[in-house]
Hints:
single chain; 282 residues; mainly alpha; two-stranded parallel ribbon; 10 helices; 56% helix; globular
Amino acid sequence: MADLPEEPCRPALPVLVDSKSIPPAKSAGVPMNVYLLHALTHIELGAIDMYWDTMVRSTSDDLPHEFFGDFLAVVGDEARHFMMLTERLKELSFSYGAIPAQKAFWDNAVKTRTDLAARLAILPLVQESRGLDAGPRLVEKLLSLGDKSSAAIVKQICEEEVNHVRTGLKWFKFICGQHGLDAKQVFQRSVLTHLDSVLHAPFNVVARSHAGLPEDWYLPVSNVASESLTPSSNTKVSSKTVTTYNHRKLDRSLKGFQPKTSRSFSSTSDITAHCSGRYVTS
Length: 282
């Protein structure tokens, strides 16, 4: 679709800069809880842009109406999350745009613009899954700062992201099946082709499994596994766009912060309890 914009419309603020130019938490001029919420708010807006871009660029593909219905529901969640976070920032006397944000979110959208399978691999299966990993740590960090209201919001977002990963996996498998491709191999090669590094532990294995994402998909392309796979150009699938947002800045803000419990989780209720404050995801 040649008439689509190259990038989404953005508000005047925040100022978008390279990730290396993002001020660290200690020198950002805002409290730590605001710093963390602002990073998450930027992630949510990036997700809105990327999911809309994915759907619009996929309208000419041979996809059932259910594909668009499912991702409309996902983008509706992301929009609601964005509004919850911006309202919370206002309650704390700040606003989205108070500090610079990274402009690299759109890079993977450009890289996967003509490859729907790669888009779905990177956006919901990598980036949304990373939210499952980091969310509980963020909840715990906010609680340690005495911000129970923000922690409750992040807890809810954390719980709802599980279905986003599940939805992405459903349609990723569908697209691969349309083209007779092995979904696990396409996922792994997409990671190695489109990301600038392998996936990084720790992984919230229970939450990922609850979303349907098996360990043998992501561990082989992580920093805790072998380097047996190499990028391959033959994994491309006709279609268009997917974009990715990046949790690395938020991860760095939480670096060294460990949850109060190290126990494993064996049920959905465990995940819910974990997100409610006993552990944190990013």
